[in-house]
Design brief:
The protein is built from four helices and 36 strands. It is mainly β. Keywords: Iron, Metal-binding, Oxidoreductase.
């Protein structure tokens, strides 16, 4: 699809940007730990919080990038920290607390790293101290969702942790009323289809078992079914339609020996296989409606999907695709990324024809982008508007410094940028009450302001990003770059 010209209006200072729209040293400051926990009403506000905006934004991400000065190897190994922004009567309250996992409590008491991380964090003492220790740290750092009157912090390789939504106190592991057992996984990318939450779990090996869970609005598991697919699978996200769950089995291999012998982390043992195709797994949500179908497409790597839908006897999946898996090296420093040397993630549409087992690809967005969001009522259905974190420049790879609105019908784009000193996170779409338009609502996002070393909670009008922020809520501190979050219409502001 040929994109129409982007409408770009953003407050970019006129000074030179050293040929890049960002300064690497400023970007790096967003990866400093935030060991403090806060609880306060936000009083430093530019603009005005919409009176109609009532509810709570929950967000998860690594809050500690070190343990008592001992740096972790990759931010994905950082302890989960929940941020809560509650909106009520035109005001907003901020609170953050770490998820008190067993490992977090033990390491804070010991003042040192006690557990290995998936992405290369090792215990002190070299390979001898790490060999044959394959127990991984449940860091509960990837997503957080309020469902069935429970607030759950999610990490895809283990059970969720339940939190008190009013205080963010950790209540312990949650086993979905006995459906999960000790050590069972429950992924960090649930999809909500009306009054149903759909999620999955992966058990990789020579063959991989994918278990699909559907929970009703009370949080009860009403359907569970497992499927075995050939080969090792590294799957972080999935997409749904009313009839299918859709997974991309990325072309990677896993050699466990360096991990077992204490030389590398498990994530460092994953190797991309460019000569192998990407497999798309099509699993009926109702297991009585057929078997798993496996289609193949061009090699690539997908972390996140924007949406999927059924149309004209075909299935369309819109996904952020990379040329290869961004491997983690044992001697690397994640803060020293040379963005310009890496291929960007771009939005592609994969159209599946289940009759002739073919897949067609089409580039939807060539700008470097990640963390997509759509109107919650359009999940799994045809949609028009996509919101996503994006690079400031139209070409090349770079940190996310903008939020992009893409009109997939007309090709029009709107871009709101905070370059050169700002860096954005995942935008979360919140529908405006009593409206039905697909872009009638707000986008909520954390923005790191490197000039003041603080973070802002930004409210944008989803209908027109060119207006700039409706309100910009200045926090008293920074929040490290995070991962995923969700909004609930239930307000958990402090009781007065």
């Amino acid at each position: 699809m040929q994109n129409l010209p982007t409408q770009e209006r953003f407050p970019v200072p006129t000074e030179a940007l050293d040929e890049l729209p960002y300064h690497i040293k400023q970007w790096q400051k967003g990866y400093e730990s935030l060991p403090q926990e806060f609880d306060y009403w936000i009083d430093d506000i530019e603009g005005q919080i919409p009176a109609e905006l009532e509810g709570t934004l929950f967000r998860n991400g690594p809050g500690l990038l070190d343990v008592n000065g001992q740096r972790i190897h990759h931010p994905f190994d950082g302890d989960g920290m929940i941020c809560r922004v509650a909106f009520s009567n035109g005001r907003a309250h901020f609170c953050n607390r770490f998820v008190r996992t067993q490992a977090y409590v033990e390491e804070q008491a010991a003042g040192k790293i006690l557990y290995r991380g998936v992405f290369g964090t090792q215990k002190p003492g070299g390979w001898l101290a790490n060999a044959f220790d394959i127990k991984l740290k449940n860091i509960a750092n990837t997503n957080v969702i309020y469902w069935g009157d429970k607030l759950l912090a999610l990490w895809e390789a283990a059970e969720p942790h339940q939190l008190d939504p009013q205080t963010l106190e950790t209540l312990g592991k949650d086993y979905l009323d006995g459906v999960l057992h000790n050590g069972d996984a429950f992924a960090a990318h649930p999809r909500i289809d009306g009054q149903t939450l759909v999620n999955f779990a992966i058990k990789p090996g020579l063959s991989t078992t994918i278990t699909i869970y559907e929970l009703d609005s009370s949080g009860k598991v009403v359907q569970r079914h497992a499927h075995s697919v050939p080969g090792f699978a590294f799957i972080h996200d999935f997409a749904i339609t009313p009839n299918y769950c859709l997974f991309f089995q990325n072309p990677v291999s896993f050699n466990p020996l360096p991990f077992v012998f204490g030389v590398r982390g498990a994530g460092e043992c994953v190797q991309f296989q460019p000569d192998q195709p990407t497999k798309i797994l099509v699993i009926p949500r109702n297991p009585q409606q057929g078997k798993v179908q496996i289609l193949e497409t061009q090699s690539g790597f997908v972390f996140h999907h924007a949406n999927a839908f059924e149309q004209d006897d075909k299935i369309c999946i819109d996904s952020i695709c990379y040329e290869s898996f961004p491997s983690v090296e044992a001697d690397s420093d994640y803060r020293e990324v040379k963005f310009e040397e890496l291929a960007p993630g771009q939005m592609w549409r994969f159209t599946l024809n289940l009759n002739d087992k073919t897949v067609q690809r089409k580039l939807l967005e060539g700008r470097c982008c990640e963390f997509p969001s759509v109107h919650p009522e359009r999940v799994g259905r045809p949609y028009r508007y996509l919101y996503i974190g994006a690079a400031h420049n139209a070409t090349g790879n770079a940190p996310l410094q903008a939020i992009l609105k893409a009109d997939l019908e007309t090709g029009q784009r709107q871009l709101w940028s905070v370059a050169p000193h700002g860096f954005v996170s995942e935008p979360v779409f919140v529908p405006r009450p009593s409206t039905s338009g697909e872009d009638e609502g707000w986008l909520l996002a954390f923005v790191y302001d490197s000039t003041h070393h603080r973070s802002d909670v930004v409210i944008l009008d989803a209908g027109d990003l060119n207006k700039g922020p409706v309100a910009r809520l200045h926090l008293k501190h920074h929040v490290p770059y995070g991962l995923h979050g969700n909004f609930t219409s239930q307000c958990f502001a402090p009781r007065k």
